[in-house]
Amino acid sequence: MMRLLVAWVLGVFVVNAAQAADAAAVDAAREALRSSIAVVDMQLLMRESTAAKSIQEQIEKQHGKYQQQITAQENNLRDAEKELGRQRTVLEPEAYSQKRKEFERKIGDVQRDMQEKKRALEVAYARGIDTVQRKVVEIVSKIAEERKLMMVLPNAQVILVESAMDITKDVLAKLNDELPAVKVDVREGEAADADKGGKGGKKN
């Protein structure tokens, strides 16, 4: 009976020791994982950084200017259409038809101008955001090197992560310090040329 009791006690000790070893191994693995992998919230950086905000502000300001220009053009077209309507009863059919074609050409010009302005804003915004993103990659690379991180993932690709593994605040602070603003350069002609270039590639 005494031998059975000793064997049982030894068995319990072995099981507890194994469980403790397993727990220690799990803790060690978790700590190693925590210190080698990090996540960053790219959407927050593109929304909250001073550089991204400066881009948005400039785009909105230029959009307002464009909207004023377009509104003026639309008002001119309405006035021209009213005048054309008054002239319809006094002009010869051929002369009226010619003026009607000229009016429709002006409508087409205004529509193309609107599309070009819209495209120019889109290209300028994309160029500015690309500048911010490249800076983020540079900063993340430096942090990863300093902390000996093996991997940095966008948090959008992770379902659950410990807050200690999130380096977004650190990246945001460095980003605001090293790139406080980005100058937006809106080029209407360049946007139109880019569209033409993309559509008219060389044929073999």
A few lines on this structure:
The protein is mainly alpha-helical and 204 residues long.
**What is the count of DSSP helices, taking H or I runs of 4+ residues?**
6
Largest sheet: 2 strands, parallel
Mean pLDDT rating: 83
β-strand percent reads under 5%
Low-confidence stretches: 4-10
The rounded Rg comes to 33 Å
- For the secondary structure, the number of strands is 2
Structural classification: mainly alpha
Helix content: over 70%
Number of domains: 1
Terminal CA distance reads 93 Å
Strand neighbour order, sheet with most strands: 1-2
Order of helices and strands: HEHHHEHH
CA-based shape: rod-shaped
Textual characterization of the structure:
By secondary structure, this protein is mostly helical. It has one domain. The chain is about 75% helix and about 5% strand. The chain has a two-stranded parallel ribbon.
Question: What is the fold's blueprint, element by element?
Answer:
Elements: H1 2-36, E1 37-40, H2 42-48, H3 50-87, H4 93-147, E2 151-154, H5 168-178, H6 188-199
Parallel strand pairs: 1-2
Helix pairs in contact: 2-3, 3-4, 4-6
Give descriptors for this structure.
single chain, 204 residues, mainly alpha, two-stranded parallel ribbon, 77% helix, rod-shaped
